[in-house]
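It would be a great kindness if you could assist me with a short task in structural biology. The matter concerns a single protein, recorded as an amino acid sequence and a row of backbone structure tokens. Could you please explain, in whatever detail you think fit, how the structure tokens follow from the sequence? Thank you for your consideration; the sequence and its tokens are set out here:
___
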Amino acid sequence: MADMDRFVEVEVLKTLGDVNLEKGRLYKDAAKLDRAMMLYSSALLRCEDADVGESLENRYRHAEKLRQGKTTATSIKNEPSRTANKMPSIAMMAEKFKHLDRRLTVDFDKDSLLIDYTKLVVEGIANEDGMLEVEAIKSLGDVYLKRGTETKDTPCLTKATALYNTALARCEGVQGRVVLIHRLLYTARIRQDMKKNANRVPKRRRQQQQQGDVPRDFPFTSAYTDVVGQQFMSPSAYIASQTVKPPAPDDRSYEDNLTAGARALADGNLDRAEEKFASALRLIHDPNKPDRGKEAECLCRLGDIYVQRGKTTKEGRKFTQAASLYNAAMARTDTDTDKIKQSLQDTEQWFLQHTANVQSEPSPSDSAMSHQMRLEDMRARAKSQLEAIDQQHNPYQYDEDDPKMLAAEAERAEAVKALFKNIAKDRQTFIQDLVDECIATLGPPPCKYAFIGLGSQATELVTPYSDLEFAILIEEGEDDDDTRRYFLNLTHYLHLKVINLGETILPAMAIPSLNDFYSEDPDKDWFFDSVTPRGFSFDGFMPWACKTPFGRDKTKTKQSVSLIQPPAKMAEFQELEVSLTEGYHLSDILRRVAFLAGEKALVNKYRKNLNKVVTSDLLSHFQSRLSAMGILSENREMMTTYEPTGQLLNVKKDIYRFPGVAIEILVLCCQINLASTWAVIDRLRETGQIQRENATHLTVLTSISAELRLRTYMANKGQKDSLSPLDEIKHQTKTQKVSDTTLKSEFHIPDTQILYRYYYRAIPLKKCIPEVIQDGSQLQSRGVFKTTIFDVSNECRGRIAKNLFNSSKCIHHFEAALKDAGTDMISRSVLLVELGGYLALHGDVTKAKSYFEEALMIHKGIHIDNTANPVIAGSLHNLGIAWGILCDPKKAISCFEQSLTILQCIFGVSTPHPDIASALANLGFCWRDLGDEGKAISYIEQSLMMRKTVYGDTAHEHIAKSLTALGFCWSSLGDEKKAISYYEQSLTMSKTIYGQNTVHPDIAAVLNNMGLSYSNLGNQQKAVSCYEQSLMIKKAIYGETARHQDIAMSLNNVGLTWSKLDNYEKAISYFEKVLKMQKAVYGEKAAHLEIATTLNNLGFSWRKLGDYRKSISYYEQVKVMRKRIFGENTAHPKIAETLDSLGSCWAEFGDAKKAIGYFEQSLTMWKTIHGDKTAHLEIAGALYNLGSLWSKLDDQKKAIDYFEQSLRMTKTIYGENTVHTLISGALEQLGSSWSKLGDHKKAVSYFNQSLRMAKTMYGDNTAHADIAKSLHNLGSSWSKLGNQKKAISYFEQSLTMEKTIRGPNAADKDLVRIFDALGTLWSELDDERKEISYYEQAIEMWKTVKGEDTRNPGIAGRLHNLGLCWSNLGDEKKAISYFQQSLAMRKTIYGDTTAHADIALSLFGLGSSWSKLGDHRKAIRNLNQSLTMMKKVYGDNTAHLHITAALHELALVWNKVGYQDKAVEYEEQSQRMVMSLYARGTLRF
């Protein structure tokens, strides 16, 4: 609990359960079995691992069976009997705590107190006594709080905080919660006081850092510029809900609804049948993960209902609704398509029979397919023509300032115009043929008629995917019921044929059980058609839509409208009274029409009627201007949003619509009665109302908008308007699955320069349009535009580049704009703030600060008499943000406080104001950066209260941001659970503001921060889930393959989480994507802190995978980049960290000298940063590392010097008598170095100190790696001191502890070394059997570690030693077996014919054993081979102990077989060699 390690907590409870289970089984104690069951249940509640959970369930069932066997035959309960185990009374519990609490004051440093409290925790869990459990956990927190306060050890405070939070989560009483909250606040205050008094700078950040979305408010913008805030767009398609998953469908309810619906349909109860089938559909409907098979089944059933409704009511719409349902079903399934096609033919047959009263055969079954093929041919022709335009007219090959570009753009615009005229003509022919087909079946019309195209069909900007918007003109004097009925039926029949093209989405059909647009209950408009492709279809039946002959049904506020009218009646929609009643949109859409089918004379007549109304008198001028003002008002947001935001564009709303609106306003103001956009522009130029240059720019702007819409639809294969304005990263093109939602790559513009050229014209045109309406009466005399609608100023270019995240272009143009501004101080200040704001968040913060400072000077000069000015406050605020990013929170606080003072002077100290709230929030962030989370929380809470006062209790984005900020602060305090609580509140509010399924940067930021908190809690799986949801939203905002730093940050966080899960391969794949993206954003060769961090993460990951060359390569790049950023000769913590990393990497790679070089540089830099005489952890760490490396190079004296310096400094930091891991580690290393120098007594002294400290830290009876290491080292030192028994004792303790830590069946080379050491020690004590036991364990474990067939010198040596042991025990056969294994392995390792000392020794052992067994021939052969090989290895005439032994053994064998002469000869050689060795001092008697 104290370490927030849920896994260990579960293991402890499971082990306690096992103990009680075993006791219950042995002693037949039902109470113990009850206790075991309760402990398993508690472990199961805390368990997050499926396998462990299954194991716990099995244990529980086993305990339950045993318990049932212990109860009486009359017992019917299977649950543990808890009543008997509960504590007798609260009084008794209080008495226990009273006794322990007395001990707390004096025994807080003793582990026995922790054990006693822990027993009470277990008792509370086992007895389901929540009060006891909470009190005991709280008391454990008190112990750690006392320890932390007394010893100044912050890890104890961390443990206290974790325990108090655990108790708080399990506490049910209000009073108890208050007490725990008080303890948490007190612990935080103690920690803060310790931070303030510590003789060191704030703790250095880890090399790998996960990034949170810091909720810092953005820079203020100047008061002199009209800057529109970012407009965040919801994509047309839903994405997965970020935190709330839809409930799993209830298959039983689904089937029940289908059955009930089928029964109702059979009974003729169509309303109930529709209700049931719609309910079944709703149960399984998920737009993000549609169950296509089940949806198809429901839709087919609903189609059957609407066929029956059509037969009953004879309404044509019911049959078209049925057809749309069948087509939607066919889009969702590959099975039963023949049946669905038959249903569609039947629907057409029933329509003709019941609605049109025509006894005729329906269209052939392949009719719809031939229509679909014709539509695809039309699209293929358009695509081919567009590709030809790309080849023949490419203005984007030129530099922007090249005069050739304008001419090339004009040529391309003319080619695009021709393309769209062709598309419009192709569609008109296709529609005319469809109409003729319908008339051929229905019979001739009762009068003359004309189908007139509306919208983009009329303006000649239509695409092959566009909706069909049209009306019908009928002959004057023929407007009666029969005529209307015929043309309504004709429209329904045409609609059937269009629906059968398969591109009509269901919401467009307004089926009440799916999408009831007339209901005031939004829950009744629930069906989203994410499957049916949206393309060529009728304009929808929504109440606000009326661009088909059906018109609009009656609503609460408006009468029904029909668009089947004689020309004169249709023209009446332009009259002022009708326009005001119906809204200008209807009159505007009917003003511009094109011929589709029928009699052209009727269209001409209609146009004449239009001219009479539109241009007849002064009233018409007023009406046109009024209509233009209405259009401007409806599109105010679009007209005032100048540059793109970098988020995904809706190509129709954000690109295509504006030129159309602008031209519509020009048409009204100039009273031009032409339909085609291209013709309107030509007329404006011909009449001189716009100049030729502006006419060209207007043509180019219109052509770009139309082309981009067409390209987007072609790429997305339908009316999907999602377009990314950012450059595409080429690393991924296929559909990607994230969480449970599939995201496809968005359409990216082949060359983003086309967008720049669009905005160069759109921005000035947006600024001109309001003036056009204002000066409407003077347009005829002086022309429409006062200026050229083409702005390529550096300021305009800079803003567009900024929003499209083109850093180099943005900075270049803004800096040029600053030069252009000259002495215009107001313009200059605007540009300084804008450029500074961009650099502060995306580039050079130092330069940003200088720009903010200059802007502040200008503002102070302008407002010299009024320093209490919001503009000056804004400049100070911006400076504060710059200092905050530059990691100087003190200067940032100074700026924010000055800004706050000015704002309070302007608005009042106690007046709630958004700018004051923003200043308070940023002050909070700065105090957080300084480590004073208490002050940070205070300021942010003031900001939150103020924002709630300003905005009320409603959900507001600023309140949500304050909640996010509070979460960030609590996360910094280490209370991740509280942080997550605030993040969840913020997330809920953000979804209330922006929509449950809406993508928005604020939602992405909160999810990212939640991921960081879960990661810090150790729940990496939840962290990955949050990060991936955040990443999914960011990709939905900016584009699946867009380059953007927000996406890079999320990718980085996912990578770091995989790194924490030790999946470094996955981590590297994410870091590589991040690096590619960052280089795309900041420049391939840019030196940027974020790029350096990513390179560092790659270096770290490759190091963990053991590829040191790659790791060093990345770290070297980091070093070079950080030196470029901070200065070649600057001492900076980031550069020092990189030197540390390079040192560590070279050390692990095995090059200690290179490692020393880097650590010496690092040490010098840390001393420069912190002060040469300052005691600091970074310096102590560098000294420690240098000591380790000199020890590896066997210069133990140097090593000892560095270790002693490190030890002294660490003790200065933490206190002379403080128990700390760093002090313990330095003592261990000193012992190791003295041991290598041969002073084993000093080594033992240091190892003992380290051991005592480790036991104090971790507990006397705790199994811990540091304790095991000290025990091992003590064993080694006592062995060298010749005290084998002490050595064996320490090694055995170390072995026991290692097995406890690693598990009883663990296999590891460290354990092999312990077995070897014990084998050797027992050999020295002449206990061959124990020696054999340990050597055999060593061999078995080594085979487990390295593999059964492993050939290793170590195993061969151990086999040889086993042979010697069995020989000493007199079992020569076993000895020979081991010698032979050893010999075979050594020959395999060194080569069968190689002369090697180890092979010679194996041969010698074999010879000696064969001699003892009496096989003298084998003995002589092996001994001769051994002797020959030894002479080759050591030299033929060299005296060596091994050779003397071989000669002596041969003498003995020859003597046994009776060859005394040979025996004497070998023995004399042996003795002469012994005397030679003695004379050289190699051998002593």
User: Anything to note?
Assistant: Residues 200-228+806-953 form a domain with the Serine Threonine Protein Phosphatase 5, Tetratricopeptide repeat fold (CATH 1.25.40.10). The longest helix spans residues 404-442. Residues 30 and 627 are 89 Å apart (CA to CA).
